[in-house]
Amino acid sequence: MRMTEVTVNYRHGLPIITLTLPTRRERCQFAVKPVVATVGMFLQDIQKEDKGIVRAEVFATDGSKVSDATLMEVLLMNDFKLVINNTTYSVSTPVKDKLSSERATEMEDIKSLVHRLFVALHLEDHQIRKERELLQKLDHLKEQLIPLEQMKARIMDSADAKTSRLLWVGLALMSTQGGALAWLTWWVYSWDIMEPVTYFITYGSAMAFYAYFVLTKQDYIYPSAKDRQLLHYFYRKSKAQHFNVEQYNKLKEELAEAEESLKRLRQALHLRLPVQEITNKD
């Protein structure tokens, strides 16, 4: 056997892959757990053992790349090519003795059980890591939102004050108009003269309300009109003070999504607690 070859042997039911490390020029054996180990995990083990390996990939005999998520059990069913740095090794897998159908079914059940146990044991650790990542993301988003929230509050207060002033001005103008019409009706002219004037004023107001509907596609309802004017002042003030409304809305959406993900994750962890308690009692 040449020192540069990559060999696969079975020992106590586990495949042992032996290869030569390129930097240290020595043979090294890697015990593989085919049921739970993936191609990516195997390649990471090789790179950890020899820091001089910058490229490690696995290809099928037809030249197609094997995914890192492929289980080693699937890979070892056929011959394959192992590429380390610029060197390609053709790896021949030994032929295993065929099992009886009953024995094969039993082994598949055992493999499935081992895989489920592996997932169950590592699921909680994954959820805890995910929770830590979500908490860090929430803190980062909140730090970004604090100055934007303060600026938004100042702009909103200014827009609300300006809208309130506009409403009071409208009330003052309507009061002035009513007083002027009353003065003209009772002190200057008579109702016979002022009646057509009030008619045209009313008709002009109806035209103004209809024009509002044509432009906004909304009925002229006082609360809606106030909110629309408030938003108009808010966006104009935001542009003047360089407040990025789109960035603020995007951060708020990301914050809501992160909070919802954290809530679902904690619910999942909470649902797992009774199962763990029962397991501990057993």
UniProtKB/TrEMBL annotation:
GO terms for biological process: calcium import into the mitochondrion; mitochondrial calcium ion homeostasis. One of its GO terms (cellular component) is uniplex complex. It is found in: Membrane; Mitochondrion inner membrane. Belongs to the MCU (TC 1.A.77) family. InterPro entries: MCU_C, MCU_fam. It is a multi-pass membrane protein. The chain crosses the membrane at residues 166-185, 197-215. This is Calcium uniporter protein. Its main location: membrane. GO terms for molecular function: calcium channel activity; calcium channel inhibitor activity; uniporter activity.
